[in-house]
## 1
Amino acid sequence: MILLSCGLCGLVAFQWYRDADLRMQIADRNQQIQKLDEQKHEVEAAGKRVEEELRRVEQFRERLAAEGRTNKAELSRANRDLLEMKAKWNQATQQGAAYKTAYDKMASDIKAQNEGMKKLNEAYLNALAVHKDTVEKYKKLAGDCEDLNNRYLKLFDQAEKLQQALNAQSADKK
């Protein structure tokens, strides 16, 4: 009986030791599962942040694309205006032989205007994000062009008057 009792005690001690070891393994597994759950939540949170950042970047890209299209339209309009100005300049240079003095003054003004137009074109190409400043520079340049055109018309009128005076002198001498 004593031997049986000692055997049962040994069996109980062995089972107790085995159960304690299994409980420790279960606790370790539970901690691992908890860590994995935390990592999963962190990864999901990071994924949501990345998705939000992607949406924000996509919206920013779309806004920049829209600004780019607007700036291209403005640049196209400026190029057409530049072509128109060059056509006007060519017409003015054809009349230059008869009005040499007036032409020299106008040519220097047109050079200054062309330099301003080149700077304006560079500003359009380099400043897609600075749309508002570019438009203001263009308006200023258009005002200068109109002023130049008004000055040219005045010079043209003066040259015409000089030509009429020369014609009148020529007629008086005959």
## 2
Amino acid sequence: MNMEKKKYYSYKTFYPKEIVGTYTSVYGEVFTDLELLSDAELEELGFYPIELPEGLYKILNNEGKYPPPEYWTHSYDWYRPTMEFIVKERTLEEVQNIIDYPLFWEDFSETNAYYRIREASMNSLPVNTVATELISLFMEARNNNIKVNKIQNCLDIIFANVQFTAEELQEIQEIFVGTGMNHRYTINLPNAS
């Protein structure tokens, strides 16, 4: 199935958008039925076709729950004077600053692995203590109070003391990578039960 690639247009040098339905410019101009016009007709109105960098195209058209890898590795800044994107490779520090802690915790707390940790915490005071601390650390991280070493330490203790199934470990890994956690933290995945 070969789907046609979406087209993006810059109106009078503004950030490119896909033209669908009604378009309202920053000047309050309203355009309708633009998708019926040719590129030449669109240019007469001030809409210029823009070729998006492949990584940005993937980000804007991502249908998965988590962003594609390009989201974590590159930034895409629109440069109006030349109507082009400046693509920059993100530094590790920049990537670490966009880790999605709230989404990680939201998704992780709905996994079977999380329920396994809760179950283990009922039978083990050390696991209970660390699990409680980890919850608190993620609540603080949601408010941009990130204690990297403490989070890593809690993760290390939990993965050393809780036995997960292969499916649970896969679930954890997917969320870990999807939210960018893998760019700052490591999880030592033991053999699954």
## 3
Amino acid sequence: MAYAEQASFYRAALLLGLIRGDRAIAWADEVLAGDSSAPAAFAELATTEPDDLTAMRERLFEIGGGKESATVVLRLLGLVQTDLASGRRSFADTMTILKQLRAFVAVGPDLNEQVKSLGVGVAIAKPDSPERAAAEQCVRDWLLQYA
């Protein structure tokens, strides 16, 4: 995967809270160790404090630009699925991330409609009802394709 696409992935993953800053720094360190001609933004990224997400996202934007590719979106959904399946993230948090994905990441119209439909299904179902359990299971099943 090209640097620009990788940077776009890390930038979006940081925005959505799917990874921590140290993971993007580790990637920058790997690039610098293996490519002496890497853009200067990698050195800046590698020396950014891992908790300064704004600065990290700016450095990543310098490397990757602003629009996420379909491949990046699929990788992000893979992280969402992994976090939900592992219990790292609750179902409610997962739904929040999916809502944020639609709002802040360049997802295509089909994916946007799928995520919207799943969210509506969960939102209109009464809590602790069989309908709600079925709607939540639909989300879990849908996310499995990104595992």
## 4
Amino acid sequence: MATLPQFKQRQIARRSTSDIERLSKQYKSSIDALTGEYQTAFTGYQAGVAQKMQPFEAQMAQYKESLLPTYEAQKATYQKSLDDYNAVLADLEKNPVIARTGTQEVKSSNPLKALVGKKDTISFEYFEPKPIPKFTGTAPVAPEVPTAPTIEEFDSSQFVAKKTEAESTLKREIGERRAAKLGAVSRKATRPMLSGAQS
């Protein structure tokens, strides 16, 4: 059976334990409430981001499904025209002239024909430069890639500050209880009337 001083010690120990349990429950409930606030705020932030991103996502879908394929097709057509033109130029560089045949009437070398006014026709070959073709194709302009909107980072500083405040409050309260307990123990050692409570 416990003596009266031992009973008091147990009561004090239970009281200090229940105080710490109460403090930890308070801390847990404040952290739970803070977590709920954080999740609500973050959900709102995500909804705002999704709303901001909707026009950009629509523009990006149009860019990928319509604008980019059209540009790629135009680019391929332009490249084929350019390749054909370069092939014509390469052929022109190898063979820059066209051989032609012409005829011309000249005074006849036969005196009888010349007397009557008849002329001789002679044929000759001459070279004419090939015409240089002009390239009329225009390079297609690439469509502008949609720019994503600027999204600010989620500001969690107020929640961090509240959590830090709750932690420091808990530590301070536990520290105060420890200090009070240590103070009570040291008073027993310095005051002889309380020293009997230790036994």
